[in-house]
Write a structure and sequence with these properties.
By secondary structure, the protein is mainly β. 11% of the residues lie in helices and 47% in strands. It contains one helix and 19 strands. A five-stranded mixed beta sheet has the order 17-16-10-13-19, with no helix packed on it. A four-stranded mixed beta sheet has the order 4-1-7-8, with no helix packed on it. The protein starts with a helix and ends in a 6-residue tail after the last strand.
Length: 255
């Protein structure tokens, strides 16, 4: 073999060897990132223990978790996450004790809230992506999440409909200047839903104020109500504010 041909072959072999050495580093850098996960209790009247990843004592993530409570953020690896919810103190290994037994698929590097609610009439977990992107200076994002056993609803701000036909299991948001607003919820036929209408609400700046509709229209053991979660968001400098703009968003993943 000539020296002219041997040199390119030697160079090619060196390149292949270098790539082989780099592969573990490339795989490591591309590894799935953990997600930040909040847990929200949206089932009225039920105090629970929450187990994540299994039903052993070491898997108990939350103890005596009450309706309206939020917890987190928890650092959760991407992948499948079995979740079992039982009444406080109950044995999670007994199927009849399991209020919820559901496996969630956690995406990589996400910011999520998982709400225990009654969507469809039965207890279950509904995951939502938290929008923590920047808002204009002096403003906040208001997010409404329908986690109730109830029909589609409209959300009104100061008498104007800004979110239309929000369905169970879905969410929508509007960016509003910080201030005090009258917030009402009605069925799509215009019937008011007083239990889901907080009335006068003060919205601080630089937040994502998240409101969950919870409970059941059909089952009076679980009355309709609201649960609130507040997250910090960054701001962008601006000299103007915009009118409310509703943007419907679906859950990013399902369990």
């Amino acid at each position: 073999m000539s020296k002219t041909l041997r040199r390119p072959l030697v160079a090619l072999a060196a390149l292949v060897a270098a790539l082989a050495l780099m592969m573990p580093m490339l795989s490591s850098s591309a590894a799935a990132a953990d997600s930040s996960v909040y847990i929200v209790h949206g089932i009225p009247g039920v105090a629970v223990d929450v187990y994540a990843g299994g039903t052993a004592p070491a898997d108990k993530a939350l103890t005596n978790f009450q309706y309206g409570d939020t917890a987190g953020p928890l650092t959760i690896p991407a992948g499948s996450l079995p979740v079992v919810v039982v009444a406080t103190g109950a044995d999670p290994t007994v199927p009849s004790n399991q209020v919820i037994n559901q496996t969630l698929t956690v995406p990589s590097g996400a910011n999520l809230s998982v709400v225990a609610g009654l969507v469809g009439g039965s207890p279950g977990l509904t995951p939502f992506v938290n929008d923590v992107s920047a808002v204009p200076e002096g403003s906040s994002r208001v997010t409404v999440r329908h986690a109730a056993d109830a029909p589609n609803v409209n959300v009104l701000v100061d008498g104007a409909i800004v979110i239309t036909g929000l369905a169970a299991g879905a969410q929508a948001s509007a960016v509003l200047p910080a201030g005090t607003y009258d917030i009402q919820v009605q069925l799509t036929d215009g019937t008011p839903v007083g239990a889901l209408s907080p009335g006068s609400v003060t919205i601080p700046a630089a937040k994502n104020v998240i409101v969950y509709a919870t409970g059941s229209v059909a089952n009076q053991s679980f009355p309709l109500g609201l649960v609130q979660q507040v997250l910090d968001v960054p701001v962008t400098a601006t000299t103007t504010t915009t009118a409310p703009i509703a943007v419907a968003i679906s859950p990013v993943f399902t369990g």
